[in-house]
Input
Amino acid sequence: MCTMSSCCVALFKRSYATKTKLTAIFNEDVRQMVLREDIKARKHPGRCNLKAKPFPDNLTDAVLKTLKGGQLKNVMSDSKLLLNYLHSRHSPIEQSEIMEKKQQNRVELEKKYYCENMSEEQQIKFEKFINNRVERLVAQRTYNWKPIDYSNRHVCHQYLLSRIAPEYNVINTIFNELQQRDPNFAPESLFDFGSGIGTVTLNAKNIWKDSLKEYYCVDTSSTMNDLARLLLQEGNPNNENILPKGLFYRQFLPASPNLKFDLVVSAYTLFELPDIKNRFETLLNLWNKTKKYIVLVEMGTRAGFNLINEARDLLLEISSQNNTKSHVFSPCPHEHSCPRYDTDDTPCNFEVSYYTPRIAQQSVIKRELFSYIIIKKGKRPDTDEQWPRIVRPVLVRSKHSICRMCTSSGKLQEIIFTASKNGKIPYWCARSSKWGDRLPVVIKEEKVEGEGEEEEVEEKSEQN
Output
């Protein structure tokens, strides 16, 4: 028999939280191709990442012949310094930002040093002191952007030696994806803005040489134009007959507003424009000259990605305002704002492996990060399933693989693939995919209610 005692009885209710369940629906055509053994799962149609190949010997010879007039040791030493500078570079600070910083510093300094009852002479000296201090502080805390002097032949040689291999392979990777996904695209005209050492022309000539009839290259540096031309001539200025037909080098954008090109490219150029006004005017000019595709490429640093994302937003906004249909061809499977830019501090970039040229040293494999955007004029085809893009290295684990992807809904989503849950073919496709590839799946989101933790809602005392 229970004695008189008091005990606490707690009543609980179970809470329910709405969760999102992600389901990856594998492309049936790809499944059948693998089952028929037309392709292997590790070579599915979403693969874009190319294996590193030795740098072409004929191009290495052309570089050596081009550098013959310079001192190779000095060029090699200085090219490393230039490369470090390029990787650490930021876009120019806008004048409005500088004025804002000056105002903030002025307010802080005046609050710190101001004294009441100053004479007129003291007031003048104080103002001078504050102005000098503000200028000095802003100069110390603000990135000092400067254009690179590509009219200097030695600087051009440094750039050639340090950037020919990574830029050549980055452009090759981008153009190969374009050709793979749109095999019917046969451009007759190419416009290369900021053509530099000519890596765009070199790759375009290799991939679309049967269709291209015009190569229009613009670079403000005549020295760079001469260098690019000499590379196409394999280092011999007398080799006029091996230059592609319809090749033009200019120092300014074409004046005619009616001139249009099938393929417009701006690679590693936006950093050279002094402010956002110049960038916007240039991008608008390039967009108006685009007939089918525009390709923009920058280094895969945070600053480089910011410039690409800025250009992406501008071109999509222009397209929507003018009621002209266009869509992002690559890398994004959507036209929403970039989820990486909105929610993350890391840039949306991709990686390419390449061999360095054999110039005074052994060829070694290196890696280059790059950010890019390809926008195609015209409506997105109804047949485009907008496969998600893998935006970070696939995490391959025991019996499962984790893919971090940018999806057609404009979100960064993560899916764990296993053979038991997804099937062997989707599992092996995911497991063999690399950073930058597309995965042949459609991701469906489903809202489900999941049980949460028990929540105490009432407590009362009971007497026996």
Q: What stands out?
A: The first helix runs from residue 28 to 35. The first strand starts at residue 6 and ends at 26. The two ends are 10 Å apart (CA to CA).
